[in-house]
Amino acid sequence: xxxxxxxxVTVTVENVSLSFxxxxxxxxxxxxxKPGELFTFLGPSGSxxxxxxxxxxxxxxxxxxxxxxxxxDIAGLAPWDRxxxxxxxxxxLWPHMTVRKNVAFGLEExxxxxxxxxxxxxxxxxxxxxxxxxxxxxxxxxxxQQQRVALARTIVVEPRVLLLDxxxxxxxxxxxxxxxxxxxxxxxxxxxxxxxxxxDQEEANTISDRMAVLDQGVIxxxxxxxxxxxxxxxxFVASFLGTANLLEGRIEAGDGGLWFIADAGPRLxxxxxxxxxxxxxxxxxxxxxxxxxxxxxxxxxxVAVLEGTVEMLEFLGTIVRYAVRVxxxxxxxxxTHRVGRAVHAVGDSVRLGVEAADIRLLSA
Amino acid sequence: xxxxxxxxWGPGAVALSLxxxxxxxxxxxxxxxxxxxxxxxNTGALTLINFxxxxxxSLFQESFFNSFYVASMSVxxxxxxALPLAYFTTRFxxxxxxLIQTLGVIPLIMPPFVGAVAMVLLFGQNGSINLLLDExxxxxxxxxxxxxxxIFVESVHYFPFILINLSAALNNIDRSMEEAAQNxxxxxxxxxxxxxxxxxxxxxxxxxxxxxxxxxxxxxxPLLLNINNMLAPQAYLRISSIxxxxxxxxxxxxxxxxxxxxxLWTSFLALRGKDYATVQKGGGGLMKRDLAGWEKxxxxxxxxxxxxxxxxxxxxLTLLSFGTVWSFSPLPDAYTAQHYVDxxxxxxxxxxxxxxxxxxxxxxxxxxxxxxxxxxxxxGLPGRKLLDYMAMGAVAIPGVVLGIGYLRTFYQFDVPFxxxxxxxxxxxxxxxxxxxxxxYALRACVAALQQVSVMLEEAAENLGATKSRTVRRIVVPLxxxxxxxxxxxxxxxxxxxxxxxxMLVSQESDAPLAYGIYEFMQSASGRGPGAALGxxxxxxxxxxxxxxxxxxxxxxxxxxxxxxAAPEEKVQGA
Lengths: 364, 574
Known about the structure:
Number of domains of chain A: 2
CATH topology of the domain at 60-322 in chain B: MetI-like fold
CATH class of the domain at 60-322 in chain B: Mainly Alpha
Distance between the termini of chain B: 46 Å
Number of strands of chain B: 4
CATH superfamily of the domain at 60-322 in chain B: MetI-like
Structural class of chain B: mainly alpha
Largest sheet of chain B: 2 strands, parallel
Number of helices of chain A: 8
Distance between the termini of chain A: 53 Å
Largest interface: A-B, 34 and 31 residues
Strand content of chain B: under 5%
Oligomer: heterodimer
Helix content of chain B: over 70%
Shape of chain B: globular
Order of helices and strands of chain B: HHHEHHHHHHHHHEHHHHHEEHHHHHH
Strand content of chain A: 35-45%
CATH topology of the largest domain in chain A: Rossmann fold
Radius of gyration of chain B: 25 Å
Number of helices of chain B: 23
Number of strands of chain A: 20
Order of helices and strands of chain A: EEEHEEEHHHEHEHEEHHEEEEEEEEEE
């Protein structure tokens, strides 16, 4: 008996707020998660991402606002009446039960007939590759195996939604990548609406259909990983997703186009539709989108050229990262490293090239 | 479908019934005692006259001073026993450590009054030791003269409290604390003074205040040694001989409670904000060093001497129980098993009563303890802390005070169908024992509950188990080790409790072991059978303790690798 593929449900979070004493942990969160989607809450610790997840599962104080599953408000229900499956960060396997008993627990609580329980437990263990481990105690399993048991225990009850609270944080690096793929495959196979909480940007990028970046109890931006990386809505999202050069300044017209005049000095040409002259804004450039040459090196046409001095360099293997002083600003530039090629030394005069298309102006 | 607020109804109802029980059987009786102490015996008006009378009576002045002196000196003497043992076990690598750990706590499983008579035979004016000293060296030592006897018996009995708390504190100091200090240039002496001593101090003070409290409140030991000019015996004698309306018994009760609170407050201050458990993962304990041959011999000599001393009540009691006549001689004249035959055939009701009372009391304690622990630590019920404070408050109430309170409060209350006041029904003894031991069972349950991660419960609720199902299937099974430990602590100490029961036993057929031992020990001819009963009590407790350790160890090894090492269980009292 294989586990059923679900039709997938919609999860809607409407204006959810929550305070612990005087601390506001969630400040009016709104979200819509589509059927069968793998959706990630990404944010630093203290951003409210786990609190939001726990609110959906029914743990912690009851939040203000509504939480809807396929249109039904579940915010007032006890955790055991919600049928949303949660995998805990520490797995929370019960040490006094065998693996099989752990997995059977939810079915027993649902008063499923014993024969069916046995079949479904075996199917779930089989699905996570632990069919031979049913009689072990959780303490006799490795971290990755415990993780799989936790997953099996949750999906065997066929929950409407799967919640994963930093499920990979207790695993070592290699296993993390492997488990990430397994969770992804399993989620696809079951077509289960899934919410994944993590503070790890790479994890979020690789696994999510869409994600929400949270900070200080507020959703900063929602979208696909690629979209968020390329078009961050604000300074926080820009710097939390990867490394960003941020320059504060204003937009000016002149010289046959739009220019960004940074307060710290540099002038950058913008694309014609970048914004309105006179606005104050911030310009964001990713380090790998800047080019670096010697002081007399040639740069392509339509490329703004900035003159500067190397302040610092870090050799990271695949790339060399430079910090270059340009006027009052320090710009990070990544250059792909080729074996044997010379690098610019600290103190060298260099030129930076910035293409107008690589500049993003941030509204906030 | 239930809502979140409805999920608090069950725990709310449980909490209310627990609170009601504690109010009826702890708060009201104690409040009654305090009220009567401040009441004019003739007019019923509130007054301080009873306290003025108390402090103007020379017998009470003397009793007050004696109780204070005995409790303080017992702390000093107990420290003399405990300090070297604690230091040796934590500092040195030598086999004696195991000896200390196993034998060092044995005194706790026998109430001090049981050993008191046997101690007279060993250390008294005409006891074995003094007879030998006189014969070979021509002098004697007044170990057991007057108050000395009480101090000696009490400190031999209660020193493990200091040993256990101090050893735990020393063991909780991580090696890195010591290494960091050495790394920063602290040598041995400074290391001890600046690091080890301050880190271990809270543990010592906690143990010492516990000893003070126990000795100050003890009734059985002074009574058996025939020392009546102390506070607890005076309270008992006033109530039992003059009557339940004599105000002095109540005044003494108030003073006993105040000193208990003072001792507990001291312990609280010592431990407040000093969670010094610094042991890191994989670390553990101070650096231990190996001993040279002569050092080892010296340590063994000290350890064996102390252990012989603290085990002497057991040794003497065993001799007494098998001896025919033991008087004016170092050892009994001859040996016999007759006393055991006698007590088993004539006094087996004492034994069955004890098993019944202590078993019921301990059962009540762990059920209530688990419920209170859960309500206090896992629910958001308003006022839940109050329940914890009430239950723990029993620690500060000496058995004599509780006994007096019950007599006063429940004498007019007739039990339906039994036609007898509640105060003289055997069930009141069970309730008194349960209330007295509840704090210890509760602490064991709380410690066990804190070992159970909230996530384990949330996982169950997430999979559809309601609160009560979660408690039954996840929480209680995982707490079982702690619950068993709590049961045994309650059972073992309730089985030999005397101070509350001595006031509540209304007829011989209702009496438990401790009462029986006390009765036997009153007369010279009853000493042999009394000692035999005492040995039986020790055996019952010993077997129960051993079995519970088996259960707990089995449970712990089952799930050892996954769970963090359980913190050293602190024994807080008996």
